[in-house]
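[Meeting: bench + compute handoff]

Bench side (C.D.) handed over the final construct sequence. Compute side (W.E.) agreed to return the predicted structure before the next meeting so the bench team could plan truncations. Sequence as handed over:
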Amino acid sequence: MNRVILIEFIIYFAVIIGIGYATSRTKMSHSVFLLGGKKLPGWALAFSERATGESAWLLLGFTGFVFTTGLAGIWVAIGIGLGIIFAWLFLARRFMKETDKHDVLTLPDFLAVSFGEKENLIRWVASILIASFFMFYVGAQLAGAGKLFFTTFDMDPKVGIILATVVVLGIAFFGGFVSVVWTDMIQSVMMLATLVILPIVALIYINTHDLSIATSLVEAGESFDSWFGGATGFALGVLFFNNFSWFFGYLGGQPQLSARFMALKNDKEAKQGIIVSITWTILAYTGAFLIGLAAIAMYKQGTFADTETILPNMILDLMPTWIGGLLLAGILAAIITTANSQLLVITSSVSEDIIHKALGMRLNDRQLVWLSRIVILVSGVIGMVIALSSQSLVYLVVSWAWAGVGCTLGPAILLTFFWKRYSSTGVVATILSGFIFTVVWISTDMDEQLTARFATFFVAAIVGIVFSIVFPDKGEETKETVNI
């Protein structure tokens, strides 16, 4: 076990938990605990949104994916990049204004109050959807932590999972949204440093050791050197949509990301967020893609029993110990930021949407904050149990959650924003169809043919449109009658 890296990890843990504790010492109303009270700067929210959106799956999952697929992995980065840009340019301000208009704290509550009918049913189905998939999302992050500790310290992954859980719970429990955003900001910079510095060092290594990425792509497999994976015809379309389909999960349906939009104060802060988020995305995804390609040149296929440990292995092979420790902490930062945000989303769905709103329990701010903290602890332990018992890849689990939540709630948000005839029945139908379809789809081998990220989005959207036309809200029926 490397003592220098271990000391750096301990310092890192102490700093971010300290920040979480410091922010908890301010007056903590329920709205501040869940959404920051509209007091956080746009640039900090943008850093937080990017750190939250790009978790262990980017640094571990995506780099491993590029290593096993080659150039065709670029379409994942393009799909995600365009999704992020679209969300910040066309949805962020809308979320900000709608939050102010309806005085809501969560995505399910926004959908509920936007439709007078069936609002409690909307809260229930949206909250159950989020909690169900996000438990596994949290588990995927903690599993990524286990892989990191195993690669870095040859530590039992289960011990690493438990350690990461303790840190995640410490941050989220103390200060809620405010502490998560400020620790996210620091960790987002650490993530970006890892994704910018490592590919530069790797490319220098490749050049000085007479290696060639182009030659290695040819040797790795017949499809590695093709931007379309060697596919043609229908197979080409499937490959393109499977990789590009991450785009659909960014269209307003990820509550942990939309919360950052809802927390924006004004247009000036939104503009700051747009600049920061787009710049971050371009640098981070370019770096992650280059890391995957560099790994193909540096290592033979089959070198790793788990390809999602490539990035930490590259750091240990290429960097001086003390710098390597800092970059490895950047991976841990990605894991912790996302797990924190997932826990807050689950917490807000349970405490605010179900207990406070749907069940109508009258609790004061202090009681609601402590209720949220209890939910954080319980959810964190459940996520830890999932991580300890799951054998699935981080990339795969996050992909399922992306489909089940983002590609289900995405159509609901877009239709709410841009289609006046969308009805409360349509909202419920959108969520239920997306939930059921995703579970059924990933339970069969169909997900290997056409990803649920693509299929779920369009199934949920079509079902929502059809049910809205067939079952309009009473106000819509009255309006149409008057127009006639």
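W.E. noted at the follow-up: DSSP finds 20 helices and no strands in the chain. C.D. will use this when planning the next construct.
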